[in-house]
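Lab notebook, bench 4. Continuing the backlog of folding jobs that were queued last week. Each job is logged with the same field layout so the records can be merged later without manual cleanup. Today's entry covers Type II toxin-antitoxin system HigA family antitoxin, a 70-residue chain. Filled in by technician R.K.

JOB TYPE: sequence-to-structure
TARGET: Type II toxin-antitoxin system HigA family antitoxin
LENGTH: 70
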Amino acid sequence: MKHFPIAPPDPIDAIKFRMEQMGMTSADMVEYLGSQSRVNEILNGKRKLTLEMIKSLYKGLKIPAEILLA
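JOB STATUS: finished
OUTPUT FIELD FOLLOWS
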């Protein structure tokens, strides 16, 4: 870690990675992020995650909050 520090992943990349791991589509993310248009905005980086979204992703998909807050 001292010589080759690893930066935390981008929150959106972490969400997409977990979606891929779990075989989820963007339609499945409506449960955690809100409407389909909001999901698309989040996944395309046009909207930031809210605290409620972060809590939902942490509880539902077990994505560490530290990553989502980065």
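OBSERVATION: Residues 32 and 60 are 7 Å apart (CA to CA).
SIGNED: R.K.
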